[in-house]
Structure prediction request, 170 residues.
Amino acid sequence: MHIIAAVITAVATLAAAVIAAAASGDDSSDVLRAGPPTTSVTAPPSVTEPTATAGTSGPPVQTLPATDPTTPDSGPRVAVTPDMAAVGDTVTIEAGGFAPGERIRITLRDSGAVEKDLRDVTTDEDGRFVAEVRVPAEVSSGNETPAFRVWSVDDVDSANTADTPFTYIE
Prediction:
């Protein structure tokens, strides 16, 4: 029983070393020379590095999937473009993560924490919207960073809101 476990461990160690050497591009293959002459181990295609050719690049880098706004654990999010503008300029608000057909209020909290209602919109079938609003004048001065905020009129809940910082320019 102990011999079988030792053999399995040795084979697994050898296979891991060969795969690691192949993945790093190491051609010395010292690990292969340690085994019997008739044994060959090939790394799976997904581990080997691609051959570089002029004008092409290797496979794309894998990333974590983007948050899907339709999943329950992805909360609302909002972005303003541009994120710096003068009073009276038009900015674009894009938001998602709400329920389909939900009524959303867009507000701006100025640096004195005074919040102004700007517009109500309804989300599309994916719980998203894009809307334009004019940047209002600040009514007070304060220490806070101004921010655009979106929140559900249909489901008023602290978890059903999002905001994004904004900068006034002259």
